[in-house]
Amino acid sequence: MDDKGRLPIQVVIPRKTDYSNNKSGGGGKELEPFTDKIKEQITKQCLNLQLSLQSSFENFPDIPCIGKVVMKEKAIAKTHKPTALFKSNTCPIVGAEKLDELLISITKDGLEHLINTVKLSSTKYIKINMTKIQEIKEYSFKDKIDIKSFDTIDKFDEPIKIKLFSFDDATDNEYYTSRFEELLDKLKIKNTKLNYGEHLCVYKVNCTEKSILEKIIEYPGVHKVSFFPQYTCDFPNMISARERVEELPQPKEGEDYPIIGIIDSGIIPGHKFLEPWIYKREVFVAEKYRNYEHGTFVAGILQYGDILNLNVSEQQHYRILDVVVSPNIDPTKGDTDTLSEDRLIEILYEVIGKYHDKVKVWNMSLGTSNICKDCISDLAVVLDTIQDLYQVDIILSAGNYTKIPLRNWPPNEELGNDDRITSPADSVRAITVGSIANIGIDGYVEKDMPSPFSRRGPGANFLVKPDVVHYGGNCTSHLCCSGTGVISFDIYGNLVEGIGTSYSAPAVTALYAGLHNSINEENSREFAKAFLIHSSNIPDKAKVDTQYFHRYYGYGIPKQNLEEIITCSKSSVTLVFSGTLYSNSHIEFNDFPFPPSLCRNGKCYGDIKMTLVYTPKIDPAFGQEYCRANIDAHFGTYDFIDDEGNVKGFGSEVPLDKKWDQRYEKEQVENGFKWNPIKSYSRSIKNGIEEKPWRLMIDSVARLGDNYDGQNFALFITISDPQKNDIYTEIIQLLKNRGYYHNDIKIQSKVRHILGLH
Length: 758
Known about the structure:
- The chain is α+β, with helices and mostly antiparallel strands.
- It has four domains: 7-23 and 569-755, Jelly Rolls; 36-143, no CATH class; 150-227, Alpha-Beta Plaits (2-Layer Sandwich); 232-562, Rossmann fold.
- Strand 5 (93-95) and strand 6 form a beta hairpin.
- 24% of the residues lie in helices and 25% in strands.
- Helix 1 runs antiparallel to helix 3, helix 8 (293-309) crosses helix 11 (501-518) and helix 9 (341-355) runs parallel beside helix 10.
- The protein contains 17 helices and 36 strands.
């Protein structure tokens, strides 16, 4: 193949000899010397806890209460968790909310046993545990309330959402919920147990009297009390009329197009350009409440966005499953209605469950005003559960900040958290899309900078959200957007412009669906997500302070050319390392095939990008510790391997080893992507590093109490030669010489033919 031809990406399967067990961590040491003062302090806290829970023990003797253990900041890593103190015969750990907190299950007998254990302090490990505890206290009435100004409300005119604690034992959970229902029946409160998936136990309670609700909240198993969020199309159309378009590509007879589900306000029936692409419709909004503007605009971007906005002649096309869920909220456009969270979840289970065999990619540009907190939102948990259950992927909009004046660039520090993403954009499994400006505005936001309205991350526990960005329009700080929006259709078939992350999301959905449809690998979801992220770059980094990279851009804007994403060139080679990691194990490639032509005069050069994707177990009971496994990758050089097989002098070059002031869990979470199920790093080695053997290490660790049978992962590494030498041939030969099992990445035959791969 000539220099300009495209070459297949290589998938490398780890050899048996590449697997090793991790060495144990160092959490078995005191953070400070154990003293009688520490014992006295914790004893006193336990006795106070016993006193505060006395009425609960009397009123609900068979229902465990919940306590809160606050850890010292340096002791929040899993290796420091006080498991010797809080165990099955005392007060076992059942969850968490904040990173420095643990939730414990408390019975009368268990608490007495805990007090005696603390007083005796009989073992080394119990003493060590006690040095790591800041405070033990009740999970209080106030902790349970998630309603603003609750104290000032006398009556409630809307249903109450009550979430119960979930424990590991299904039989216990069933008993605790039955006792809760008995309490509601006794209080004559109408209620419905809702389907929020396997992880959440949620009730819809019709209770108008505050005094009655307070009695309900006193039930020990109550976790959170709130109102049901209302979801809408997350930005009003800001449109101005443009010319009509007469001709656009239409479905070819006999062509088998992939299907994308659009969950939105619906596509206007009979639309000249969009109707021929409709696969089916599922309508959940009464006719008088329908407003098709938003859904039609979204569908236009998905189907023709590249043609209308990027001035290309063609793009991939899809059949559309039109799911009408969002009612009109604009009184100038007709009757209005709302979409409550519980109703939306009911619809999602119904429609995704019905079509998941045919529809693998879904776009949902809906949101709420509820800013994401440090713990993942309930709807995000449900979306994660649905994606796992049905093996589908959902693309979400990041949400829009509309409070005037909007954010300029660099961002206004006074915004605080007001412009943070809203639910369900914090979903871990979903791909969340922010917006960047397609056209610059003098004095406001330049092209490729974050749109003034685009909400930013991080997600829960500093997870990178949004994942990527795309063009969603631009505006002034007062929402003026004439001539700076993205182009799509109104309900009459006219070309109009609009702004919002609602419209950047479907552009990514179309691209992602193309990637998903191109790959024939067994773990195609992880591969497609890795391809998307790996192809993404933050535009013109020189204009952006590094602290803002991931918060506003995620991992950047993806490449638009499918061929460039899923193939290599001779001078830019992508290797995919795919396999399964087991709890507390790692993979070492100590003979990594680094191309010799990138080593000159005793130094190594080149551009390196590395993207890691995996799908960890999730558990909302643990709040900020929602993701229950972590995988890291380290790529760099080493000095030698000693006689016992130990690697000496290894230093990671990608990601470059970070030297924080204190390498405790908090710093690693905030700065090092720890527990992020997507990680991406890049480095351009222009000045060279000392020529040594190259090593790739992929390691895993599970959260406290979680071991997994196997964690699949996909790691993409691209090595590029700025001088355009043929490093592809070099790497392929080295793989063969060093006994690596590798294959061309499996691409669908239709796509292979289009790309000229044989």
